[in-house]
Amino acid sequence: MAQVPGEVDNMEGLPAPHNNNPAARWESPDRGWEREQPAAATAAASLFECSRIKALADEREAVQKKTFTKWVNSHLARVGCHIGDLYADLRDGFVLTRLLEVLSGEQLPRPTRGRMRIHSLENVDKALQFLKEQRVHLENVGSHDIVDGNHRLTLGLVWTIILRFQIQVIKIETEDNRETRSAKDALLLWCQMKTAGYPEVNIQNFTTSWRDGLAFNALIHRHRPDLVDFSKLTKSNANYNLQRAFRTAEQHLGLTRLLDPEDVNMEAPDEKSIITYVVSFYHYFSKMKALAVEGKRIGKVLDQVLEVGKIIERYEELAAELLAWIHRTVGLISNQKFANSLSGVQQQLQAFTAYCTLEKPVKFQEKGNLEVLLFSIQSKLRACNRRLFVPREGCGIWDIDKAWGQLEKAEHEREAALRAELIRQEKLELLAQRFDHKVAMRESWLNENQRLVSQDNFGYELPAVEAAMKKHEAIEADIAAYEERVQGVAELAQALAAEGYYDARRVAAQRDSVLRQWALLTGLVGARRTRLEQNLALQKIFQEMVYMVDWMEEMQAQLLSRECGQHLVEAEDLLQKHGLLEGDIAAQSERVEALNAAALRFSQLQGYQPCDPQVICNRVNHVHGCLAELQEQAARRRAELEASRSLWALLQELEEAESWARDKERLLEAAGGGGGGGAAGAQALRRGEELAAAGGAVGAGAETVHLAGLAERAASARRRWQRLEEAAARRERRLQEARALHQFGADLDGLLDWLRDAYRLAAAGDFGHDEASSRRLARQHRALTGEVEAHRGPVGGLRRQLATLGGASGAGPLVVALQVRVVEAEQLFAEVTEVAALRRQWLRDALAVYRMFGEVHACELWIGEKEQWLLAMRVPDSLDDVEVVQHRFESLDQEMNSLMGRVLDVNHTVQELVEGGHPSSDEVRSCQDHLNSRWNRIVELVEQRKEEVSAVLLVENHVLEVAEVRAQVREKRRAVESAPRAGGALQWRLSGLEAALQALEPRQAALQEEAALLAVRFPAQAARLHQGAEELGAEWGALASAAQACGEAVAAAGRLQRFLHDLDAFLDWLVRAQEAAGGVEGPLPGSLEEADALLARHAALKEEVDQREEDYARIVAASEALLAADGAELGPGLALDEWLPHLELGWHKLLGLWEARREALVQAHVYQLFLRDLRQARAVLRNQEVALSGLELPGTVESVEEALKRHRDFLTTMELNQQKMQVAVQAAEGLLRQGNAYGEQAQEAVTRLLEKSQENQLRAQQWMQKLHDQLGLQHFLRDCHELDGWIHEKMLMARDGTREDGHKLHKRWLRHQAFMAELAQNKEWLEKIEREGQQLMQEKPELAASVRKKLGEIRQCWAELESTTQAKARQLFEASKADQLVQSFVELDKKLLHMESQLQDVDPGGDLATVNSQLKKLQVWPG
Question: What 3-state DSSP class applies to 173?
Answer without folding.
Answer: strand
